[in-house]
Amino acid sequence: MTSPAHKVLEPLEEIAAVHDFFHSKLPKLVPGPNHTTSTSTRPPSRLDKHLDPHLALKRVVYCPSIIDDFADIADHSLSQYVSQKSTLPPTELEHASDTSDAIEDPSYLERFPGNLIRTDELSAMHLELQSIINEESVRTIYASILARQCLTVASTLAFQLPIWSSGYLRWEKETATKDNFGIADGFLRVVDTPVKRRNACQLPPPSDTFRKIVKEYPILAVWEFKNLLAGRKAIFEGIRELARDDIFPWTLCEYGDLCGITRAPGHPAASSEEPFVYWKKRGPDAPIPVCKSISEPLSAHQIPAMSEDGLASANITHSIHITQQVWAQMVKNDTTFACLSSGHLKMYFYRRRQDSVLFISDVISTDMKGTAKILTGFLIATLRDAEARVNELEHSPHATWSETNPYKVANTTVTNPEVRKYKVAQTLFLMPTLRS
User: How far out from the chain centre does Cα 333 lie?
Assistant: First the structure.
């Protein structure tokens, strides 16, 4: 297929086109007649409840200005690109028909998401937008429109690519069974080969630092999705309410030291006085947070009161469960960032490993003007954070990493079925180690 012709725009016009994209928003999602009636979320799963106490969430902190940080990061990345490259790649297609090869791939976009492309994509998905039925519908819309559009802009600006391309960033949906294993609904991943090979020759090779990120921190952020009812405003506001307390009510295993995971039958340490504890290898925090505002969060008395709608349908238990679920996913993948989305609403999370604190944004309406700019900045922030963490790990590689595991449950010599069924704890999520 031939490449589309482009209009020749002046640099200021190209910049204006990016700002126009930054001010775009996600269309309103409408529940279909068969939308699920489920308004609940699952309680903490087996693996959520078995994090070692030093990894469990200790406190939620309300920090609404994180959103401003993301917007500033997007603006700064655009300014850096222009100052170093003088001009941006072409942003405008000459004819609407030129968008045909831009939307044929449902996952990735290799054109600037200008007005023509955004209009065509919304038209193509009109029926889907008007007939949301469950969590998967929300996730599909997210992946098909906003995520891949913002991913293209974020990758191009962050890596200063000569073409508009998602390049070395990939947004993925989970594919494994997630019932009991704390697997997130979506991931932002870094890869060392371009997603689109046809343009690989136009992309600069990955730097040494980037290759280290691919090795150490391949997952930059995780997503959790809820359907339009389960992710109603009251649930998001309930998460915000958790910031009024000094301690997060983490749900532990109800069996305590008798738990079969912490002391599995037939395990070599089963007769010991001390049970097993479960650790997860983690890297350091970035020495200077990419989100500056976390140093000045709001106090409890500054947290907005719940809205009338929120008070009418609040369920703080569900808000607690979702928060624990997201935190466990962040620990599992050792990410600093996460996003909770329900189609209408969104909330961003920032994890500080040092003291197990979760900073949360305000509740954001996805059809708010500027949603694309916030998400673009969020995507770039995850990469900048990983760069800083890799450099910190290089300077002090053992400063904050947990001890090695003296006994691997996944060892092939373990034959007891009651022990073997727990080897997923070592291979997928947790590292068991003897308590010293």
Answer: 10
**All residues at 6 or more sequence positions from 36 whose CB lies less than 8 Å from its CB, including other chains:** 133, 134, 227, 229
The Cα–Cα gap between 287 and 391 comes to 10
- What is the identity of the amino acid at 288? I
Say if residues 59 and 358 touch (Cβ distance below 8 Å): yes
Q: How many residues does the chain have?
A: 436
**Tens of pLDDT, residues 373-388:** 999 999 999 999 999 9
Helices and strands counted in the chain (H then E) = 13, 10
Which residues are 211's β-sheet partners? Answer: none
Q: Is residue 290 within 8 Å of 388, Cβ to Cβ?
A: yes
Nearest-angstrom CA–CA distance, 361 and 64: 4
Q: What is the mean pLDDT of residues 174-200?
A: 66
- 358's enclosing H/E stretch is strand 357-360
* Joined tokens for residue 232: 């109603």
Q: What are phi and psi of 415, to 5 degrees?
A: -115, -20
Instruction: Give pLDDT, residue 37.
Output: 67
